[in-house]
């Protein structure tokens, strides 16, 4: 039986990959991705410090176009910024939506 396959065409040689420093990657991609700043607490004590002392700085979620459209212009409890409206929505959900009576009424679903 003869081999009917065509010979493969010549492929160009790929360019060598040069490693880049993390700072260069960060500077190149963060402005395009619009990532929020990140703080890494490397121990339990550091995590406790950030969550106790600076909790208001880290409490809000990033505002993205997706959250604007899915969250009714940031007005639902999930995407709304921390403040009086968010606290009121949380109280409502705790008292009405996640109450034992409502959850029991939805048991069949």
From TrEMBL:
MF-aspect GO terms: heme binding; iron ion binding; monooxygenase activity; oxidoreductase activity, acting on paired donors, with incorporation or reduction of molecular oxygen
InterPro entries with a match to the protein in the record: Cyt_P450_sf
Region entry Disordered, spans: 1-20
Keyword Ribosomal protein on entry: no
UniProt feature, compositional bias: Basic and acidic residues: 1-11
Keywords: Heme, Iron, Metal-binding, Oxidoreductase
PANTHER family referenced in this protein's UniProt entry, alphabetically: CYTOCHROME P450 98A9, FLAVONOID 3-MONOOXYGENASE
The protein, known as: Uncharacterized protein
Origin species: Miscanthus lutarioriparius
């Amino acid at each position: 039986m003869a081999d009917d396959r065509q010979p493969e065409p010549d492929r160009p040689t790929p360019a060598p990959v040069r490693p880049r420093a993390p700072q260069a990657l960060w500077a190149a991609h963060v402005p395009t991705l619009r990532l929020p700043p990140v703080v890494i607490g490397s121990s339990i004590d550091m995590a406790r410090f950030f969550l106790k002392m600076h909790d208001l700085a880290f409490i809000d979620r990033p505002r993205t176009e997706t959250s604007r459209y899915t969250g009714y212009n940031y007005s639902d409890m999930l995407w709304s910024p921390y403040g009086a409206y968010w606290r009121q929505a949380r109280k409502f959900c705790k008292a009405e939506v996640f109450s034992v009576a409502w959850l029991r009424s939805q048991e069949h679903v």
